[in-house]
Structure to design on (237 residues):
């Protein structure tokens, strides 16, 4: 059963997305480590061979999004695309944890940063390194573009399709924690808070209508527009 629309694949706390392209598929992110079997199971359910994945786009190199990279890349032979600002850390296998943006996540982030020095992953040298603010994905069989949307991390990218579907990594997550506790889609961890707001503005300037986050269910871009207004008011006070 061929896929006609993006498929959300839940891999632990994080989402991966499989996008039908003109020739084969494009995978966005690879989820928590150790859960790649769930991704292969989803492919099997749709009778898609891993070899049909032509490209793996890494929205950013936090481990909950690249945990399955090695297994999926080995099974698919797909090329990997990452942003220049994070390609060296990806190649070196460096574990990067951004600072928290709320009192509780600042505490957790600080502890994580101290621990992260003791961890490494195998490292991967991305075949495609993105250097532009914006890049067409036409040559990869997608009607859409890649947008540089830093803030949560220095090399965060989003994929915005002409259809209005936007895959945003951790730029504006939609976890229960965000929805019911923080009441905003602002990321609980971010490298650069001002850059998050700038990237939100960039994203809101595209045809994006429905957002597919790296954590939590898809939601309407109107919610982000509302958050942006409220959060910027708060930041000014
Ligand atoms: Zn992240
Ligand atoms: Zn994440």
């Amino acid at each position: 059963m061929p896929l006609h629309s993006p498929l959300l694949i839940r891999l632990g706390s994080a989402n991966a997305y499989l996008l039908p392209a003109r020739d084969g598929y494009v995978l966005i992110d690879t989820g928590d480590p150790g859960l790649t079997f769930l991704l292969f199971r989803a492919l099997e359910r749709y009778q898609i061979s891993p070899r049909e994945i032509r490209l793996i786009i890494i929205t950013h190199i936090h481990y909950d999004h690249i945990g399955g990279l090695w297994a999926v890349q080995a099974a698919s032979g797909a090329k990997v695309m990452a942003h220049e600002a994070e390609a060296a850390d990806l190649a070196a296998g460096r574990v990067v944890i951004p600072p928290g943006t709320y009192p509780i996540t600042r505490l957790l982030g600080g502890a994580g940063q101290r621990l992260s020095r003791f961890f490494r992953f195998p490292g991967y040298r991305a075949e495609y390194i993105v250097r532009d603010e914006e890049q067409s994905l036409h040559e990869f069989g997608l009607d859409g573009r890649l947008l540089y949307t830093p803030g949560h991390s220095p090399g965060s990218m989003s994929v915005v399709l002409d259809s209005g579907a936007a895959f945003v990594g951790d730029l504006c997550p939609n976890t229960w924690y965000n929805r019911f506790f923080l009441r905003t889609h602002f990321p609980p961890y971010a490298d650069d808070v001002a850059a998050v707001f700038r990237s939100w503005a960039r994203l809101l300037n595209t045809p994006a209508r429905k957002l597919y986050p790296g954590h939590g269910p898809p939601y309407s871009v109107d919610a982000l527009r509302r958050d942006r207004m409220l959060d910027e008011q708060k930041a000014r006070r």
Observations:
- The longest strand covers residues 14-20.
- The radius of gyration is 17 Å.
